Amino acid sequence: MAIKVLFSAPDGQFARYRAPLSQAFEAAGLTVDLAEDHAPEETDFIVFAPGGQVSDFRPFTRTRAVMGLWAGVESIVTNRTLTQPLARMVDHGMTRGMVEYVAGHALRYHIGMDGHIVNPDHEWAHRTTPLAADRPVTILGLGALGAACAETLAQLGFPVTGWSRSPKTLDNVTCLSGQDGLHRALEGAQIVVLLVPLTAETENVLDAAALARLAPGAFVINPGRGALIDDDALLEALGSGRVAHATLDVFRTEPLPADHPYWSHPRVTVTPHVASETRPVTAARVIAENVRRAEAGEPLLHLVDRDRGY
Ligand code: NDP
User: Fold this and answer.
1) CATH number 3.40.50.720 given to 92-270
2) Which residue among 94, 142, 182, 196 has the greatest number of ligand 1 atoms within 8 angstroms of its CB, and so is best to mutate?
3) What is the pLDDT of residues 86-120, one digit of tens each?
4) Of the residues 23, 100, 118, 236, which has the fewest C-beta atoms closer than 10 A?
């Protein structure tokens, strides 16, 4: 009998995912009935993104797993009706997109590209740019995305320090953990990248005290989540020059309200939550692999720990 997989995501997403998912299920040797309208009591698995038709998981009595299309799960882990196992998305395509975004903005700041792109007075000024080896970078979060960014920035020559909850070892990256590790990771950092998930423990991780530890004139890149930053503290640090510039992709309210000071701030680049996105072809393979595992009685990949919140 066909495995019933319900697709629940905002309008338009099914059209993007239907063919890649069907191909991935077939390649995994699975016979799947993929639809947007399976009855809850007949649904075996749910492919899920917030904003679709499912928000109450209680009627899904036979559903064996919910497989998120997003890496961030802060809006799902708090849903008390969700008692089924929840897998989040770790997608090679999304990881590569994030590496490109972070490396691009880090290099933009490092080389001082803005000074050449916006040069209304046609100033012919030679400024020596330090080499990457002289520009310490700190990445908060060493998970699927943070570790990949750390590896690429280290390959470019930056001295990279990473911070995670549990101790880690990564080639060419100084890995720190815990509160003391956070302080050491931020001390003197010239570029800081936020790639921790939003949890009760990480909210406002970049507050006034944390910003005060950065090197004067540091750069902030936040593709993680808006609430990781204390916005008032960042605006203050931008005003004082403690932070020279910030690239912000995520915000407490999205879309960023038209009157938010970030929009017009000369030292802030706003990008509209585009740092990276789930790529249907590569993500479909991850979902098919998890359905195959569930069918074979094997442990699922990328399960979310509800207590940790990510
Ligand atoms: P992972 O779960 O793979 O990694 C999270 C990392 O953060 C881990 O290293 C984890 O530590 C660390 N961490 C979590 N809590 C703490 C804590 N309290 N103190 C210190 N470190 C902590 O997540 P991903 O790398 O896949 O994604 C990171 C985030 O990126 C997502 O949660 C999402 O919010 C955001 N994102 C943004 C996108 C965009 O387009 N802007 C796209 C995709 C994701 P440990 O290793 O010990 O578990």
Assistant:
1) yes
2) 196
3) 999 999 999 999 999 999 999 999 999 999 999 99
4) 118
